[in-house]
Amino acid sequence: MSAVFIILALLGFAFVILIHELGHFVFAKWAGVRVEVFSIGFGPRLVGWKRGDTDYRIALLPLGGYVKMLGQEDLPENQEQVDQAPRDSYLAKSAWWRAVILIGGVLFNFLSSYLILIALAAWGMPVVKPVVGEVAGETTTLNGERVPSAAARLGLRPGDEVLAVNGEKVRGFDDLQVAVLMSATRPLRFTVRRAGQVVELDGGGDVRPVYDSNVGAHVLGVQQAASNRIAEVAGAAADGPRAGERVVALDGQPLAAGTTGQDIQQRLGLAYGRPLRLGLAAADGSTREVAVTAGGQSGGHAFGLPVRIGRLFRGAPAEAAGVLPGDAVAAVDGVRVADVEHCLALVRSGLDRAGRVELTLVRAGAERVVTVPGLELAGRLRLGVELGAVAQGHLPLIPPGLDGGKGALAEAGLQTGDAIIAIADAEPGKPRGVVAVRGGERVLVPLSPEAHRLAQVADRPGRVMRWLGNKGQPSLYERLIGARVEACTDAEGRALGSPVTGAVVVRKSDGTPDTVDLSPLGAAAAPLIAALREGDWITAQALGPTGAPALEVVRGAGRDLLRLAVTPRPTGVAMDFAIETTPYRLDGPGEAFAIANRSTQVMIWRSLTFIPRFFRPAEQGGLDANKQLQGPIGIFSALKGTAEHFGFDSFLRLVALIGLNLVLVNLLPIPITDGGQLVILGVESVIRRPLPASLRNALAYAGLALVVALMLYVTSLDVMRRL
């Protein structure tokens, strides 16, 4: 079936090119110009036929197309040569006719895209509803700092339907994204429908999108709402839920209309580890009920890893309650915690029930109990801390199983105070080899934020470079963690603790020695070397009590290693839910033109305004070209994915938008594009003579070099994203 969507994507790509070249062809014929070649693609001819004077062909490289007209490539030195050109030559035609022929391609692209959009709007434009599925509490900035997201500051909540952004009507989720992208550093004002009421949100009048380094643009910090249709399912029996079915009831209670996939995930999370009944509806309308055990998204129950507090959110009540980064969570409201997902379920349940939870924390081997009120964020009470599984490093406790008996770690023979050095890869559901050390003391070696950043830097070559033998370089963390310190030296090989820069000689758990040069850390290498001792096991990255980065070290454990096998427990059923489109219903016949006009404005005029932003810094609304631009491979993948997951109407809409984008690209004043040729034609009309052939050749080669360089750049981005 995938082959069908690949062919459909190729046809969509070819359609946009065909329409463009057809525009040139039609106006050339109208003007009486002989067309010698009509080609879809560049390079050697694959197939085709000749009719009249024209060779119609499909060429090897499907990256565009061209129409070759008689005399188009001639470069006359004077007006006399123009006057002597054959009557059916492009060169013999008036400047007005040549301009019409040049603009014919973009005109056809524009008209075809506009008509497709009008037809789709009249039929029911496929849109993802502008409903908020989830609100991110924080966003990662360019320097790695975590700050409150714009959505959280505005007061957006899951389930809000966005009606307008800064006074501009929003019809689909893509309208919302474009509005935020256009706003960049300007304040945001939202109009939403919440529980049937229209609400205005401006967060005090000075809430702006936050630049997210992971996206390369200013973002709002929301997820679009998923539907109740299952996209993927894991851990289900043969008669369990299947991809494509819809969840319509939980434990016999029908779900309300408009229940989002995120809502279902929340309810499944609250039932983590417990049996429940799912009501399912198939595409043919048939319904059934299945019994499942609710599983989490991380599969944490498989190994029952301890839960540790990570970073605290700004203003979180947990800080006032005495919770510190690095604390381990032993119990929630008196129930012993089995793993991260179990902990989250207990916390959510406690906050929903009482607005607070009682946490039993383990710090330095001792237990203490604190009461933490919920932090309201985006309409939901949250704990206000990051919770993470201790997958490597010192084990502050050994969690029980979900049934209260022994957990997977205890059954493997691990004890509180052991430190996991390495975990071997294994097939899902199979036992995993664990290497650990017993005894010793947990010590945290503080690192500066800059040293932490530098220690994470690794050289990750793409697949092609790996095939050529470039294995890259692991980060300093990867080389140090899971190893035993043999000695610390300076740059001249002098021993433990001497000068500022140096190296750490370590031995991995498999006996492999390694001399790790710490000079990339600069001045931060000295305190790290001074803090390490011979015989230390470097076990994990960690956070200190203040939330600052640190290296976790186990000191005094000796050389003896435990080699154990941890058998995973069943993880229960986990599901992901699909994003779906729905037909947009028009307020009136005239709105179809408003939709087409807006799409045209966004894809041509507003896209043009984005170009300067690729050259601006982030604080001035800049965009990261490496993360925002797509080339032919990316466009083809988008066409295939849209056809496969959203249907033919969404596919047609994307084809129309690509056609409008081609209008913009072809009108750019680059010598080999239609826009560049129009500029040259305009100059020649003003000076009333042809430009010198040498100048036109130079401009053509410069334009070709620019286009080829840009094509290689965006194609390389497409390739690197897929390696």
The level of helicity is: 25-40%
Structural class: alpha+beta
- The average pLDDT is 85
What is the total tally of β strands?
38
Radius of gyration: 31 Å
Low-confidence stretches: 496-501
Walkthrough of the structure:
The structure is a single chain. By secondary structure, the chain is α+β, with helices and mostly antiparallel strands. Among the domains are: 2-125 and 646-721, no CATH class; 439-559, no CATH class. The strands form 13 sheets. It has a 6-stranded antiparallel sheet. Helix 3 (95-123) packs across helix 14 (591-610), helix 3 packs antiparallel against helix 17 and helix 14 crosses helix 17 (648-667). The radius of gyration is 31 Å and the shape is globular. The two termini are 24 Å apart.
Summarize the entry for a quick read:
With about 725 residues, this protein is of the alpha+beta class.
What is the strand and helix layout of this fold?
Blueprint: H1 2-30, E1 35-51, E2 54-69, H2 79-83, H3 95-123, E3 125-127, E4 132-135, E5 138-140, E6 146-148, H4 150-154, E7 161-165, E8 168-169, H5 173-183, E9 190-194, E10 197-201, E11 210-212, E12 217-219, E13 222-224, E14 230-234, E15 246-250, E16 253-254, H6 261-270, E17 275-281, E18 287-293, E19 307-312, H7 317-320, E20 328-332, E21 335-336, H8 340-354, E22 356-363, E23 366-373, E24 375-377, E25 380-382, E26 385-389, E27 393-394, H9 408-412, E28 419-423, E29 432-437, E30 441-446, H10 449-456, H11 463-467, H12 476-480, E31 483-490, E32 502-508, E33 513-517, H13 525-531, E34 537-543, E35 549-555, E36 562-566, E37 574-577, E38 582-584, H14 591-610, H15 625-628, H16 632-646, H17 648-667, H18 674-687, H19 693-721
Antiparallel strand pairs: 1-2, 3-38, 4-13, 5-6, 7-8, 7-9, 9-10, 11-12, 14-37, 15-16, 15-17, 17-18, 19-26, 20-21, 20-22, 22-23, 24-25, 27-28, 28-29, 29-36, 30-35, 31-32, 31-34, 32-33, 34-35
